[in-house]
Specification:
The complex is a heterodimer of chains A (467) and B (223).
Chain A (H helix, E strand, L loop, with lengths): L8 H29 L11 H33 L6 H23 L13 H23 L8 H20 L2 E5 L2 E4 L3 H20 L1 H15 L6 H15 L14 H13 L1 H14 L6 H4 L1 H23 L2 H7 L3 H31 L6 H34 L11 H6 L2 H37 L5
Antiparallel strand pairs in A: 1-2
Helix pairs in contact in A: 1-2, 1-3, 1-17, 2-3, 2-4, 2-7, 2-14, 3-4, 4-5, 5-6, 5-7, 5-8, 7-12, 7-14, 8-10, 10-12, 12-14, 14-15, 14-17, 15-17
Chain B lengths: L6 H24 L16 H12 L14 H7 L34 H9 L1 H4 L21 H8 L5 H16 L6 H7 L10 H11 L2 H9 L1
Helix pairs in contact in B: 2-9, 4-8, 4-9
The chains are: A mainly alpha (467), B mainly alpha (223).
Chain lengths: 467, 223
Amino acid sequence: MKENSYDYQIVRGFTFSALFWLIIGLIVGLWIAFQMFNPALNLTPWLSFGRLRVVHTNGLGLGFGLAGIFACSYYMLQKLSRTPLVFPRLAKAHLYLFNVIIALAALSLFAGMNTSKEYAELEWPLDIAVVVMWVIFAINVFATLVKRQEKQMYVSLWYIIAMTVTIAVLYIVNNLEVPVNLFKSYSVYAGVNDANVQWWYGHNIVGFIFTVPILAMFYYFLPVSTGLPLFSHRLSIISFWSLIFAYLWTGAHHLMLTPLPEWIQTVGIAFSIFLIAPSWGSVINGYYTLRGNWEQMRSNYLVKFFILGITFYGLQTIQGPTQGLRTLTSFFHYTDWVIGHVHMGTMGWVTMTISAAFYYMIPKITGTGLYSIRIANVHFWLILVGQLVWTVTMWIGGIQQGAMWKATDPDGSLTYNFLDSIASLYPYYKIRFAAGIVYFAGIILFAWNLVMTIRKSQEVKNQPLNR
Amino acid sequence: MGVYSKPVVFAILSAVVILIGTVVTVFIPMLMPSTQPVSDYVKPYTVVELEGRDIYIREGCNNCHTQTVRPLRTEVLRYGEYSKPEEFAYDRPFLWGSRRTGPDLNRVGGKYPDSWHYKHMKSPQSMFDKSNMPPYGWMAENRLDTRYSKKKISILGYGYTEEEVERQIAGYKARVTSPSYDSKEARNEVTPEELRNELTEMDAVIAYLQKLGRDVKNMEAEE
């Protein structure tokens, strides 16, 4: 199959959509980080923390995360099946529809139209649009896979298939609601059931957006950018099936010590512990792929993104199950510890892997090489340091708040009132804000580098005589 | 190797694999009585409380306030009796939350008089200078929209007739606009003159907050 018959326009479109929503989502993130220690930035109802936090999570999770996944999926799909997209015009419609949905999502969330269910806040008309968009994506995935030239499907394609199927199930089941009008609906589930469905969704939407497709990228882009074959095909098979099997049992670790039936909580803990094994299967597969070639950490600028990324994934998948244990959850839950946990995954694992995938794809597409490897290296160090300071600060703050909530005087009364506990965190919130600025600077360099790479390729095209 | 070269079979197999845990931990529990307990003590929200709850959702209050007290010694000391499953029978959606930037609210009903809430919502910092809660004084400047109240009640199946819905709204309005309302002064301070004889969004949110945990407190008082 000729290289130039692949549809790279769609990859480019989603790459730059991802960068756009990444920057918007981070600006909102910085805004709410400031509000946490100074409420003066709650300037208007639509800039109040309660509304903005949802814009932040949706903007980055669905805007940046999904766009990055679509960009890389369309690329890997064509490369790994050695077949051009079957329906390129449908893919183009997908790109436009996606950006319209995210823009309307942001506007409606600013306006306070939300269902309150975390990562499923969009009201029902947008839910329907999301489902339509997902079907459009799935048609291209399966049509291209059915028509593929390559006999075997590589591991990355398994993860893309699992994501495509699972997100559809999760999204539809958790968003079943009865409309009151165009802007308001009520969940079909009540109370304990609603909580159980929501956190089954909440945990797995994170799993099948921030884990499964990111692993697809890792399994593809690490070997192609290093020229090293994957360490173990067998290990990747075991990791894949046990990961997607176990994931769906674990949502209840978000509901420890709530009125949810105790057996569901206990099953959730058991499978969470089990999940460490398949998660580390991928981590080990990644590390061993580099065996004997670790000098690439220095010589190949992309490798450190992948290796640090998978390292944060490894830490994340030990921290998660551990903090879900009853004794630890009674201390950590509802504190900033969990906020730190989430951000190690998103700012570390997810963003580092997507960064390297974009740095690999865009120069391949334009055929001109990256604008500046030095800027990419600075970007790496800024987001690494920014993320580490950010997350470690939140963990310390979480420990402090948890301890203050539990502290009692010798007579058995509480030592601190609630306000003491939150006010004691303001110094941490200021450090977190500063770390966020460092991280944001790294992301700006990332976006700049890719924009300039495209510019450079256009200049080369416009000067045919110099070639 | 069969399945790795058959995308459609692979997709079906994946769906089966992910549905096993889903069926056991989510679908089957839906049919079990333990996830839908009922109690004679727990009453559905009144119309005004429900409208207040919808404003609570609209403003994303659940992003900073949980509504579930865990069965832990210090938690019960701080907030009151731990949360029971039957308390949430009428909650669509549930609002347990996941982060406590502010305190839990599951037992806040009856803890403070309405006047406390009017002042606190208007300016949390005027009462607690270190608080990071956003001010919500503007809610008192919005007339409460009850156009969809009847439809909401019928969707949620609370069982009030249309007359009952109107009676509840008129009744709550009469209560907060009455000269003998115990929080009249605080309410007048935050409510613009032209809305003092109307129901505002702030009235509804406070009605909702005062409902939280009230049924359990009544139950304890009877025991």
